[in-house]
């Protein structure tokens, strides 16, 4: 059935290799705008719950994808005024349906902006996002919008939007895990590279001074502190100075 096919397509966007959160959100919004009956634009937003000192909770946009720039402008207005279907959905954690914004009375400050941006009718579905670390403070809202009033078959599109939001949330969780793994791998590579260059610099100092490894590292740290630099940067400079093809003098492990 086309509904399941569209949901699978949207869910697959977060599974692609090297897909970033921003790219996945943009692709999801475009896919929904093209695939959902009656939809002319779509908006997918990731929010984070922030708890204030007084215990109050507000929702902050961390990223979003909009199939059309007008919808992004409408989101900014909703976010600024705290009025509109998208902020209502994330605040109440319930699906928000708008048959015609001109017949709406819930968000008087949003009506004129919605008309200007071509947002006459919409269905917005919130969904929790959680990672392997138990992070439960993020929420996704998946909204389909139309420039026509009464554009959506409520029975079909309400269920479809909920399904798309669920698949999108699962896809973004996968994308987040992949990004976390990539960051951890990059951090490990940097750490290993730093360890290698420090060991090389220690070897140079040990050879020059006839000292042991601990004394050589202490010399590196002393130079780093005196020059307000990181130990790895001092080590990198020393290695470059003493292993380059133009080396013209003996190593100076004291950094002078």
Automatic annotation (TrEMBL):
<dbReference type="InterPro" id="IPR005561">
    <property type="entry name" value="ANTAR"/>
</dbReference>
<feature type="domain" description="ANTAR">
    <location>
        <begin position="184"/>
        <end position="239"/>
    </location>
</feature>
<keyword id="KW-0805">Transcription regulation</keyword>
<feature type="region of interest" description="Disordered">
    <location>
        <begin position="237"/>
        <end position="256"/>
    </location>
</feature>
<dbReference type="InterPro" id="IPR036388">
    <property type="entry name" value="WH-like_DNA-bd_sf"/>
</dbReference>
<dbReference type="InterPro" id="IPR029016">
    <property type="entry name" value="GAF-like_dom_sf"/>
</dbReference>
<keyword id="KW-0804">Transcription</keyword>
<dbReference type="GO" id="GO:0003723">
    <property type="term" value="F:RNA binding"/>
</dbReference>
<protein>
    <submittedName>
        <fullName>ANTAR domain-containing protein</fullName>
    </submittedName>
</protein>
<dbReference type="InterPro" id="IPR011006">
    <property type="entry name" value="CheY-like_superfamily"/>
</dbReference>
<dbReference type="Pfam" id="PF03861">
    <property type="entry name" value="ANTAR"/>
</dbReference>
């Amino acid at each position: 059935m086309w509904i399941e096919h569209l949901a699978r397509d949207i869910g697959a966007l977060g599974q692609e290799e090297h897909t970033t959160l921003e790219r996945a959100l943009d692709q999801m919004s475009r896919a929904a705008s093209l695939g959902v009956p009656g939809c002319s634009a779509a908006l997918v937003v990731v929010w984070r719950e922030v708890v204030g000192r007084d215990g109050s909770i507000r929702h902050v946009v961390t990223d979003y994808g909009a199939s059309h720039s007008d919808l992004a402008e409408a989101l900014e207005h909703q976010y600024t005024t705290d009025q509109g279907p998208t902020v209502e959905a994330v605040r109440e954690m319930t699906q928000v349906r708008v048959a015609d914004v001109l017949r709406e009375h819930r968000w008087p400050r949003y009506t004129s902006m919605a008309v200007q941006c071509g947002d006459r009718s919409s269905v917005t579905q919130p969904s929790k996002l959680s990672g392997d670390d138990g992070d439960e403070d993020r929420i996704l809202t998946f909204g389909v919008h139309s420039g026509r009033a009464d554009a959506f078959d409520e029975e079909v599109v309400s269920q479809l939007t909920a399904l798309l939001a669920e698949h999108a949330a699962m896809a973004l969780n996968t994308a987040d895990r992949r990004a976390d793994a990539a960051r951890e791998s990059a951090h490990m590579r940097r750490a290993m590279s730093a360890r290698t260059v420090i060991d090389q610099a220690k070897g140079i100092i040990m050879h020059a001074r006839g000292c042991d490894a601990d004394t050589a590292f202490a010399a590196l740290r002393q130079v780093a502190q005196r020059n307000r630099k990181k130990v790895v940067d001092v080590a990198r400079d020393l290695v470059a100075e003493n292993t380059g093809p133009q080396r013209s003098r003996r190593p100076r492990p004291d950094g002078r």
